[in-house]
Specification:
The complex is a heterodimer of chains A (260) and B (337). Chain A contains ten helices and twelve strands. An eight-stranded parallel sheet of chain A has the order 5-4-3-12-11-10-9-6. In chain A, strand 10, helix 6 and strand 11 form a beta-alpha-beta unit. Chain A is of the alpha/beta class. In chain A, helix 3 crosses helix 4. The termini of chain A are far apart. By secondary structure, chain B is an alpha/beta fold. Chain B folds into two domains: 146 residues, FAD/NAD(P)-binding domain; 137 residues, 2-Layer Sandwich (D-Amino Acid Oxidase, Chain A, domain 2). In chain B, a hairpin with a 3-residue loop joins strand 15 and strand 16. In chain B, helix 1 runs parallel beside helix 6. Chain B is globular. The chains are: A alpha/beta (260), B alpha/beta (337).
Chain lengths: 260, 337
């Protein structure tokens, strides 16, 4: 089980609701993923908060927790306003906080992120900040009261998997009590398994599933990978070694030959 | 009575909605020998119709990137019906290009869409001389066509009048106002009887410039939307369209920026173009984004054409006529109420 503020979930996969060929395929993919939390973009999908009622009904029918996001916001003020709009519309204190600092890479503006997180937490929000792998930023967010932190694997939609493994390992080691989610940049189920094997609590995905030729089958593949990665982490992975180490003794090889 | 007759021709048929779906229904029912009346809530300008803001792309292969095989199948049949009804319809293909940064999405499009061949910079320049030197590779869909909805709809209405089909504009008629057979083609207005129907906002902009000419729709790969620039008469171009899950019909600044940037990045001459109009319409869609013909006792509802109104309307009309006449039922599209 994984904890997101005061709620617990069996699934360690969070899934987005954008870019599917149709809402029916979106529903089927979300069900196949087993996810208990879906993210909804207030800006991209709904034109200033006027989300289509029919589309909203289709999301509600899934019986999952909704995590509204501030995708596309480029300033603290914009992100705070969008979060307040989302709280009214979706009736939840949860907000995935995204403040974009660079249009080329869609990299989070971590300075603006920390500022916006502080404002929103004082206002009673439960913030899920989308950040880079920078440890000190994550520590600031924790100190402000974020109990969930979501560093990227790679830029949004880039499908590159974890590009700075050492930094993500360090963050896991230094923030053992925070729910850590790898968000953005995962392209293949193996990338998701990788994140769970590193000890991350969950992953958040959208494009890799929604834009697959068969989104429902891909959602299932990610579900299995996330389960597999977590089981492997709990089972205790062997670390990498510099030399071959046979699992059975190589009978007949004199030891002085084996070390030459 | 001849009980062996395979076909049954209804005495009269009232069709509600003179948009592209209803117009094709009227045309094919009239051709099948029925006495047809077409009813429309708006006036003859048809500015309230979703099709007023449509791109009018007849692109079954391009659409196969994101749509189900059913769309391609019906779309291909529609191409023949368009050729038959309006032989002057241009079928000179469509061109798909992308910026280097969207390379991965371009390759994905090439993999998922059928019916194209790859073209290099030279071949693109041969097809569209004004795009010479701007793109190094693209996809050419030779068999596709396009129509201008604002010309084609009045032309089809004229054809109907010539065939003796009255069109009642400013009509308040609903599906329950008739004793005989009714074909309900009200689109998004039919939500009172189709609870799962939703509106999906599409925004477009029309611009005018004499500095560039295109002879076919040019589609630009975009990470979220199918964006295209469609040439129109009198140096005009339609740039569309966004796809947003909202039932609001305003055009946002963000969408305007994305549409205009797309055109500008296809050719900088669009930077000097004059903006003619912004517009938005709600495409009627069911949750699977597929069209449906729902056959009740007296009323047949044809709806959910989504982004594919001009592509699907002729084939859906043919399927409806065949079902109502008792000739055959296309089980992939026709459902019982």
């Amino acid at each position: 089980m994984v904890q997101f503020y005061d709620k617990t979930f069996a699934s360690r996969l969070l899934i987005g609701t954008a870019l599917y060929p149709s809402p029916a395929i979106m529903q089927a993919a979300i069900r196949a993923s087993g996810a208990g939390i879906v993210t909804v973009s207030l800006r991209r999908e709904s034109a200033g908060g006027r989300i289509g009622n029919a589309f909203w009904d289709l999301i509600r029918a899934l019986d999952v927790s909704v995590l509204p996001n501030t995708a596309g916001c480029r300033s603290v003020r914009e992100a705070v306003t969008t979060a307040q709009l989302a709280r009214e519309l979706f009736d939840t204190p949860w907000i995935k906080l995204e403040v974009i600092g660079d249009d080329e890479t869609l990299q989070p503006d971590v300075v603006g992120l920390v500022e916006a997180a502080g404002i929103l937490i004082k206002d009673g929000f439960e913030v899920f900040p989308y950040c880079t792998e920078d440890l000190t930023v994550a520590m600031r967010l924790r100190d402000l009261g974020c109990r969930v932190i979501m560093p990227w694997a790679a830029p949004i939609g880039s499908a590159r998997g974890i590009t700075n493994r050492d930094a993500l390992k360090l963050m896991r080691a230094r923030l053992p009590d925070v729910t850590l989610v790898v968000d953005a940049g995962l392209g293949a189920p193996s990338h998701a398994a990788d994140a769970l094997e590193l000890g991350y609590d969950a992953v958040l995905l959208n494009t890799a599933i929604a834009r697959a030729a068969d989104p429902v089958a891909m959602a299932n593949a990610f579900r299995l990978a996330v389960e597999s990665g977590r089981i492997a982490h709990d089972a205790g992975l062997m670390g990498p070694r510099d030399f071959a180490s046979p699992s059975t003794p190589v009978v007949g090889t004199p030891f002085w030959h084996a070390v030459s | 009575m001849n009980h062996h007759a395979r076909t049954r021709v209804p005495e009269s048929i009232d069709i509600i909605g003179a948009g592209i779906a209803g117009t094709w229904q009227a045309l094919l029912f009239a051709q099948a020998g029925c006495k047809v009346t077409l009813h429309e809530r708006g006036d003859a300008s048809m500015t309230e119709s979703t099709g007023h803001w449509a791109g009018g792309m007849l692109a079954p292969f391009c659409e196969s990137e994101a749509a189900e095989p059913l769309i391609t199948r019906l779309g291909l049949r529609s191409l023949d019906l368009w050729r038959g009804a309006l032989p002057e319809t241009p079928f000179n293909g469509s061109l798909v290009v992308s910026h280097p940064r969207d390379r991965a999405d371009f390759e994905r499009f090439a993999r998922l869409a059928e019916g194209h061949r790859r073209v290099d910079g030279g071949a693109i320049a041969d097809l569209e001389p004004d795009l010479a030197g701007r793109f190094h590779d693209g996809l050419y869909f030779a068999q596709e066509g396009h129509v201008d909805p604002r010309h084609v709809l009045p032309a089809l209405h004229e054809k109907l009048r010539a065939a003796g089909v009255p069109i009642e504009f400013k009509s308040a008629a609903g599906p329950d106002d008739f004793d005989g057979a009714v074909i309900d083609c009200r689109g998004i207005a039919a939500r009172d009887t189709c609870p799962t129907l939703r509106g999906v906002k599409g925004e477009i902009v029309t611009v005018e410039t004499a500095e560039i000419a295109l002879s076919r729709p040019v589609r630009l790969i975009h990470p979220r939307w199918s964006l295209y620039v469609v040439p129109r008469a009198n140096n005009r171009f339609l740039i569309g369209a966004t796809t947003i899950e909202s039932e609001d019909t305003g055009v946002s600044v963000r969408s305007a920026l994305e549409l205009l940037t797309a055109a500008y990045s296809i050719h900088p001459a669009f930077g000097e173009a004059r903006i003619v109009a912004f517009g938005a319409a709600l495409r009627p869609a069911f949750p699977d984004n597929l069209p449906r013909i729902v056959a009740g006792n007296r009323t047949v509802t044809v709806n959910g054409l989504y982004r594919h109104g001009f592509l699907l309307a002729p084939a859906l009309a043919e399927v409806t006529v065949a079902h109502v006449m008792g000739e055959r039922t296309d089980a992939e599209v026709v459902r019982c109420a």
